[in-house]
Design brief:
CATH topology of the largest domain: Alpha-Beta Plaits
Radius of gyration: 16 Å
Low-confidence stretches: none
Strand order of the largest sheet: 2-3-1-4-10
Number of helices: 5
């Protein structure tokens, strides 16, 4: 399974979300975005040719100018690497990705899991000791994000403002 973003929507609105994302990416200038539904209600994954984090900036601007164009997209999550969802793979890719953080910068580990027997606490306990940055659960600069979807996991090390939630964004505009 190959993807570089995850998007969420309301249950049974996955087809509408796929259409909406394709239209938004087309407007963004990415003509080759592939989006597909997963076996999990309300969840789609996709592969775009442009940087998904740049797309989040586009989404925020879009919400300011034409909020009615984003109806089905609830959350947009960029993914840097996709690996098999097992502890050794998650440890290896996490150690590789956290290298972009500088010493002294803060982080937190955020694990979202669907259709897996792995436990959040086990994942965190395996990975946290390998990261030399300081932990800040309230206001971290970085998030080590692990999104598990069945037997695959999307892993990213992103700044805290690189996650998009349409509900939160719309509330901040009011």
């Amino acid at each position: 399974m190959e993807f570089n973003f995850i998007a969420t929507t309301f249950r049974f609105k996955e087809d509408d979300l796929v259409d909406e994302i394709k239209e938004l990416f087309y407007e963004f200038g990415d003509l080759y975005t592939a989006v597909k539904k997963t076996h999990i209600d309300g969840l789609v994954v996709g592969l775009c040719s442009k940087d998904p984090i740049d797309f989040i900036v586009f989404l925020r601007d879009k919400l300011k100018d034409a909020p009615w164009d984003i109806r089905y997209l609830l959350r947009f999550i960029p993914v840097e690497k996709v690996v098999l969802a097992n502890l050794p793979e998650l440890k290896n890719i996490s150690v590789e990705l956290v290298k972009k953080m500088s010493n002294g910068e803060s982080f937190k580990i955020l694990v979202e899991k669907r259709h897996t027997n792995l436990k959040k606490i086990d994942i965190i306990n395996e990975i946290a000791p390998l990261v030399s940055a300081k932990v800040d659960l309230e206001t971290p600069l970085w998030i080590l994000l692990i999104e598990i979807i069945g037997k695959y996991a999307g892993v990213s090390v992103i700044k805290t403002d690189s996650l998009f939630s349409s509900m939160i964004e719309k509330r901040s505009l009011e």
